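Everyone, describe these structure tokens:
***
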Amino acid sequence: MSRLRVALAKGRLYEPSVERFRRAGAAPAADAGRRLLIPSSDPSIEFLVVKPGDVPVYVESGAADLGVTGTDILRETGADVLEPLELGFGFCRLVVAAPADAPYPALPGGITARVATKYPRLAQAHFGGTGRPVDIIQVNGSVEVAPLLNLSHWIVDLVDTGNTLRANGLVERETVLQCGAVLVANRASQKLKLDAYLDLMERLERV
């Protein structure tokens, strides 16, 4: 049976992903250290550990056969991959948030709102779909502080409990996308390694 390479994202999805594969009989080696290519307890599967935003890229290109990513990242990248399985963890939402006293959904005087986000593609599509022109400002971290520093009027960011928003005086205004962890697959690998692919799908669906 062909070996499958599975890309796992560093960060919040890593531990639940490892647990799901462990229950399916393919636990990553515990003594991997700083290695990014990690063998598993199942010799037909190995893991590749990468930054979250790189998972769809590795899978689409075929550098990995499968990967675990969030729907937020998947939709933002627009990667051409299969989505065979929702994994049932990593639930959160992508929202528009603004200071509690800020005008919304429009600014007075026809001013074009500035929106700070790590998700420029999704943010532009959301506001464009509602006929509201905005200026998107792409930032890579600490999005919540942007309105406090007058960098933006509103933000689009990922929210779980909402505690960080509230701590920075922001309130949710709209939901852009409900998100969760999904398994993605390379289109060619799914055909070329069909037996291994189907075996792993069956095991993951059982646990």
In short: Residues 4-90+180-206 form a domain with the D-Maltodextrin-Binding Protein; domain 2 fold (CATH 3.40.190.10). The chain is about 30% helix and 30% strand. The mean pLDDT is 95.
